[in-house]
Amino acid sequence: MQSFDLTSEQQAAYCYIGAANNTFLTGRPGTGKSYLLKRIREEHGYDGGTIFVAPTGIVARALKCPTIHSFFELPCEPLMATEASPSQECLWRLRACDMLIIDEISMVRSDVFSEMDRRLRIAKQQDLPFGGIPVTVCGDFHQLPPVVEDQLLGESLRQTYGGIFAFETESWRKAGFRKIALTRPMRQADDPDFLTILNVIREDRPEIMEAIARLNRQIRPREEGIPVLCCRRAEVRAINQAKLQALPGQAVTFKAHLRRFAPYSGQMGKELHDLPCDEEITLKEGCEVMVLRNQAGSCVNGDRGVVEAWTDDAVSVRLQYNQQTALFQREEWPVLSYGLDENGKLEIQHVASAWQFPLAVGYATTIHKAQGMTLDRVHIDIGKGCWEPGQFYVAVSRVRRLADLTLEKEVGYFDVMPAGGMSQRLKSMGL
Ligand SMILES: Nc1ncnc2c1ncn2[C@@H]1O[C@H](COP(=O)(O)OP(=O)(O)OP(=O)(O)O)[C@@H](O)[C@H]1O
Ligand SMILES: [Mg+2]
Q: What count of other Cβ atoms lies within 10 Å of the Cβ of residue 5?
């Protein structure tokens, strides 16, 4: 196990992970955690029983691995201590796995993490953490947390698993991960002043107001071709619409086909607000789009491309990453609602479905989709303000130098630190 382009600390972590230890590989953004995983990936090959998985399609694409949901065959809805058995094919897959490596662990929800543990125990017929195989979890809890869109779901996760994060679960405690932190900055290696600003934000240090003031000096209008990062999907949509309008040519609008189901007990028309896809998508030839769902064999959630042509039932898109044309059709988007049953357990109701193309205009994107990426330039538009812990920190830490970053508007302390106490909490837990 020798890899010469790794830094000495990456090399040491490489050996530790390779020696079958349960490891929590962490470190600040850009310290080369994912780079190290890619090296292990290359050297272990694709069929060595070392399985890499990631919580989002875009991170999985970078690591050339499946998402957690596809590999562990997890349903989209929350798992809530399910007792369902995985399919025979899934069990076989898991039985063949002799080491598990997970990137972007901060985004892995507690129920998903616990279910991976449970399914491996079943597959391996061993009542040991993750069925007894070595596990490496990689990521940084100062970055974005898992997506928990529903308050009730958040409450249920707290009751069932102790919280929304992987580190709050019984599975995490029992695995006994040893923490290895990479410390050498690789992404921002050439801009020490920028690195200081990032570290001040991370630790909510007393100099934070000066760091914010320095970032606010980067306020300027967005330049053409620079991706915009926003906090909210609605803000992403507004920017995309303006860009689309400015594009020449004929626009086409695809309306979602909707169907409601009987048990729906909410406000009339509320399903429309809860749609997991856009009710209408307007496109033009040459407009930039982002793929919203993994497409078997061709692309993943978060991939970018340019619209080439369309019919009523299909849209063809030239993908940026391989310059191939992919054909998209309408897909079903179930509208799920969460309620509690008579025993106080979370119950999921399928209240409606929409059929829509898995595409969105893609000039702007959410910060969530940019986690894990290194970007050449970024324009951050916080819109109505940041609200997730780590959100602003993830956005600014994507670029290599402060000069590569511009802001649309002024940011304040509560944008940078929306959940006071998170960094203290992580520190006290040794995370
Ligand atoms: N040993 C190395 N040699 C050359 N480049 C490296 C090395 N390690 C990391 N890099 C580069 O540094 C940048 C940041 O690395 P990487 O994305 O792996 O960091 P990370 O710790 O995973 O960050 P994040 O927390 O944002 O996911 C990337 O452009 C990567 O290619
Ligand atoms: Mg990474």
A: 8
